[in-house]
Amino acid sequence: EAGVAQSPRYKIIEKRQSVAFWCNPISGHATLYWYQQILGQGPKLLIQFQNNGVVDDSQLPKDRFSAERLKGVDSTLKIQPAKLEDSAVYLCASSLEGREAFFGQGTRLTVV
Amino acid sequence: AQTVTQSQPEMSVQEAETVTLSCTYDTSESDYYLFWYKQPPSRQMILVIRQEAYKQQNATENRFSVNFQKAAKSFSLKISDSQLGDAAMYFCAYRSGYTGTASKLTFGTGTRLQVTL
Predict the structure, then answer these.
(1) What topology is assigned to A5-96 in CATH?
(2) What distance in Å separates the CA atoms of residue A24 and residue A104, rounded to the nearest whole number?
(3) How far is B43 from chain A (nearest CA, A)?
(4) Do B110 and A42 count as a contact with CB atoms less than 8 A apart?
């Protein structure tokens, strides 16, 4: 069974630029999560989708972050404009409803 | 809101020895799940073990076992016969067991485990 796929693995951008991350969940998983992991901290949920609807986006900085999950499968997380404090690893995870989450390898973003 | 605390930023263990990583949590819910995830340098979070709060029996997975103390809200991970491949960041995580609510994981700050020869 293929795991959660994320791209790119690494991204370096200048502050005020925009960036997008892509996630392809495990086939059949209706729930998709985006987590932000700042260096030295545990992951923090940014947004959770159930199929293509948003379940929880209370921690998403909506003035600069946006996410979508078209057709309830792939998802894209965008940051525009990026700030220095957005430097982090962005992890995507998916799960069957009510079951444990499986994570991708993440995207390491560096904002300079 | 639920919180998860890992008070050991770093731990070290010799190969073949046993090590215990500590985790405490705070919640007012009675139905929940607790997890230990391993994060190697590849960054992928790998599930090590899970515990349902309603189960009194401690979960075990091969060399990994937990000591779940519900009243004390403590959830420690014991790694027996440590191997070099066990070296990683270990995160304790909490998830509500109630359906109809967001099933997000709340993570601790992690413990870096070093395994020495």
Answers:
(1) Immunoglobulin-like (2.60.40)
(2) 9
(3) 5
(4) yes
Q: What is the pLDDT along chain B (117 residues), one digit of tens a residue?
A: 789 999 999 999 999 999 999 999 999 988 899 999 999 988 889 999 999 999 989 999 999 999 999 999 999 999 999 999 999 999 999 998 876 556 889 999 999 999 999
The answer to whether the CB atoms of B102 and A56 lie below 8 A apart is yes
Rounded (5°) CA angle B70-A103-B108: 40
Q: Which residues of A touch B4 (CB under 8 A)?
A: 42
> How far are the Cα atoms of A65, B10, B24, B32, B77 from residue B7, in angstroms, in the given order?
32, 9, 9, 21, 13
Could you tell me the residue range of the domain that residue B42 belongs to? 3-116
Q: CB of A58 within 8 A of CB of A44?
A: no
Domains identified in chain B, total number: 1
CA-nearest residue of chain B to A38?
B109
CATH of the domain at B71: 2.60.40.10
